[in-house]
Amino acid sequence: MFSTVKRNGGFRARTLLAPLCAALTMSTVVLAGCGGPADRPQAGKGTAAAAARAGEARELTDAERITVERGEEILVARCMRERGFRYWPGPVAGLADRQGHGYVLTDVAWAKRYGYGRELEERARRARLEDRNTAYTERLNRRDLARYNKALDGTLEKDPLKVELPRGGTVWMPRDGCRARAMAELYGDLPTWFRVKKTVQSLTALYAPDILADPRFKRAVGAWSACMRKAGHPYATPREIREQRPRITRGMSPEEARATEVRLAVAEATCANRTPLARTARSLEKRLREEKLRPYRDDIATFQRMSLTALSRARALEADAATP
After folding, report:
1. Within the chain, what is the greatest distance between any pair of CA atoms?
2. How far is the C-alpha of 281 from the C-alpha of 277, rounded, in Å?
């Protein structure tokens, strides 16, 4: 999907967003890999369609988001075939890929298996290289490639969708490509979906800085740092680890680098839970979300209801695809 962003007084940049980056969540942004099912939104009773019809609103689970993203890819493939091109549903991020991206790791089991995600990064890199769509487009001549890209992503010249972001800036999206058509079929109302999606997607910026600046959070980070020093890892903040990660493993074999990162990640997650850091982050985020996001409750609820509608339709698509 093409998305064009213009910041107030800034410059315009257009980026191609890959399916792997399509996951949307309103869950915690400070804690990474928050652990077991109790920490994640759970499916309610009844079907997603029934919940949406009843006006219920809840966040999708990670597994449900995967289903929706796969459904979108199925619809894109159908649309591209109708427009005369081959298209294979692209890979979507798995459950493990959706963890480990916040400020601090808290899931010790995830850290023991993946460290800082080196294995997952390599798997995603291979998936991009092995994507049949890439090989297909490389065989197209220049004229057909231009037609392919227009069919897939549309153009911004034909009445694009436009959203003003809460913190300033504007986002545009074409409405005439197969990606836009797939979203319209899944969510039912493309302009509304694009507006609430982009709004919800940008809301973490309204409260995350306040968490990091809170004195209680800073004290908790200090306790975490003391715990890390005792474990033999002298880092002031989790962010420092991420900044120094390339240097930490420089010159190591892949096996050595992975083992080193796993030890460090396990220590980070262990100290996050052993000190007040994890519970302080959860408490502050809960309070600040309630305070800062109050003006956007309707958008959030609409986003969640439309996501449930898309989930129901995506499940039907998967069932159809599985039928011989």
Report:
1. 62
2. 6
Write out the H or E segment, with its range, that includes residue 95: none
- Let me know: does 115 contact 261? Beta carbons within 8 Å: yes
Q: How many other CB atoms are found less than 10 A from the CB of residue 239?
A: 13
CB 186 within 8 A of CB 272: no
* Sign of the CA dihedral with 222 first, then 227, 228, and 229 last: positive
By CB atoms closer than 10 A (0-12, 13-18, 19+), residue 250 is exposed
- Alpha carbon distance 154, 177 (integer Å): 4
How many residues are given for the chain? 324
Measured CA to CA, the distance from residue 37 to residue 274 in angstroms comes to 20
Q: Report the C-alpha gap between 91 and 81 in whole angstroms.
A: 18
Collapsed DSSP state (helix, strand, coil) of residue 162: strand
Dump pLDDT digits (tens) for 155-191.
998 889 999 999 899 999 999 999 999 999 999 999 9
94: which 2 tokens?
């798995």
Helix-, strand-, coil-residue percentages of the chain, each rounded to 5? 60, 5, 30
Hey, how many other C-beta atoms are within 10 angstroms of the C-beta on 284?
Answer: 19
Cβ atoms of 271 and 227 closer than 8 Å: yes
> What pLDDT digit, counting tens, does each position of 17-40 carry?
222 233 334 445 677 654 433 334
Query: What's this model's pTM, rounded to 2 decimal places?
Result: 0.81
Are 16 and 86 contacting, i.e. CB atoms less than 8 angstroms apart?
no
Picking from 64, 71, 24, 29, the residue whose alpha carbon sits closest to that of residue 44 is: 64
**CB contact set of 240 (below 8 Å; sequence gap of 6+):** none
The amino acid that residue 33 corresponds to is G
> Which of 27, 33, 47, 42 lies closest to 203, judged by CA?
27
Q: What is the DSSP letter of 60?
A: P
Which 3 state secondary structure label does DSSP give 64? Answer: helix
